[in-house]
Amino acid sequence: MRMKTYLSLALAALMALMTPAQAQSGKFSPAIIVNDSVITQYELDQRIRFLTLLRAPGDPVAEAEKGLTEDRLRSHAAKAAGIVPNEQQIAAGMAEFAGRANLDTEQFLQAIGQAGVVPETFRDFVSAGLAWREVVRARFGQRISITEAEIDRAMSVVAQRGAGPRVLLSEILIPMSPGTAIEVNDLATALSESIRSEAAFAAAARQYSAAPSRAEGGQIGWIPLTNLPPQLRQVIAGLANGQVSPPVPLGSAMGLFRLRGLEQGGEIAAANISVDYAQLMIAGGRSAEALNMAERVRGEVDTCDDLYRVAKGRPANELLRETRPMSQVPAEIAAELARLDDNESSTALTRGEALVFLMLCKRSATLAAGGVPAVTDVSAPTGDGVPAIDPTLGFGQGPSRAQVREELINQRLASQADGYLAELRANAIIRTP
Fold it and tell me: Which of 33, 94, 227, 355 makes an SS bond possible with 290, Cβ 3.0 to 4.6 Å?
């Protein structure tokens, strides 16, 4: 709704600035020349209007000149690499951008058209961005490797994953594949346009969602914005309370979200912390033999995953590993875990006749408030179009490792892209007539 308001507020001011003389006088004269490519005054005026309409930060004229110049450099690099976005990709990109304003493409084009921004300006803006993304991935994608340790750090409390503003959401995650993408998008669009209440959203979640939250009508607890994928954060940030998002592509699913609340948050609350921990039972209680065995184990393992090797061949109940909200961890275990950092261990506890080798695998703040470990029900569809539960979907459990990996890759790519663009600009001949 905020974007719609911005568009409306900007229209009158822009229309007041337009005069027939300004519209026609020298509009196709060169404004900037990038290598051998001309940016016309008309293109510059269009970009200025577009940025003004979007309430983009900075001086619209300076930002328009900079943006068009960089778009030319991006387009030259894409052409040299043989990369040209197809019509389907461009249409999808336009729809995604318009969706940030909670509009479909036609509504967005109509809104900007009232301010004199032609569809081609928006199309060129999106196309240059799509082409550049493919250039960067083709040039740098194979060079980027994200380690498991880097993912652990990114998901850790130390990295402040879970701090900051929090949102109260309901979610619908509809599974899709390349063969069903159009059908699922049409369904999600229809739901987005027709749902008007939490009850209607809950009914749709129970019917169409494959996320574990389906049983709760799609409701999940308070969750930090940092636990959502970057593209989803942008969408959620643009919603008003009670509003349903446009369809959001999320890899193997199409998502719909209803905002139920927003709070500024801040530091990570203890109640929002979850722990992944392991317990290896060593026979003999606190005997010297058992304690010596624990020290040998400590010397053999670096992470909780190494405990599976140590426990190989033992009864399954001698190694337990769980992920729980801290509030659901037994008190004596919680007290020991509070003293440990990731991958540290303790031998202070016993259980029955066994010494407990307790190891903290990871402390994080990824679960939604009141969250519980993901269900593992992967039963067949229940009929009437209701999909099977997929425990990897949904955001009540916070970001998956795959999602964090993709986020880190995109951060690295963005850094590489900035450096490459600076190099292209340094080597270009840029002049004004």
Answer: 355
pTM over 0.70: no
All CATH 3.10.50.40 domain ranges of the chain, comma separated, are 158-269+387-398
- Strands 345-351 and 253-266, sheet pairing: unpaired
Asked whether 42 and 139 are in contact (CB, 8 A), the reply is: no
Give residue for tokens 């065995």.
Answer: 293
CA 298 → CA 42, 137, 145, 301, 306, distances in Å? 70, 42, 29, 6, 10
Number of Cβ atoms within 10 Å of the Cβ of 259: 20
174 touches 254 (CB < 8 A)? yes
Work out the angle between the directed axes of helices 60-80 and 119-140 (0-180°, nearest 10).
50
Q: Please, are residues 250 and 399 in contact by the beta-carbon 8 Å criterion?
A: no
Instruction: Give yes or no for a contact between 388 and 211, defined as CB atoms under 8 angstroms apart.
Output: no
* 158-269+387-398, CATH topology level: Chitinase A; domain 3 (3.10.50)
* pLDDT per 10-residue tile (average), the chain, 433 residues: 46 43 62 92 94 88 95 94 90 83 84 92 93 93 88 71 79 88 88 92 94 91 80 84 89 90 71 83 94 94 92 90 85 90 92 94 68 41 70 77 83 92 94 86
**Read out DSSP for 23-89?**
HHTTTTSEEEEETTEEEEHHHHHHHHHHHHHTT-SS-HHHHHHHHHHHHHHHHHHHHHTT----HHH
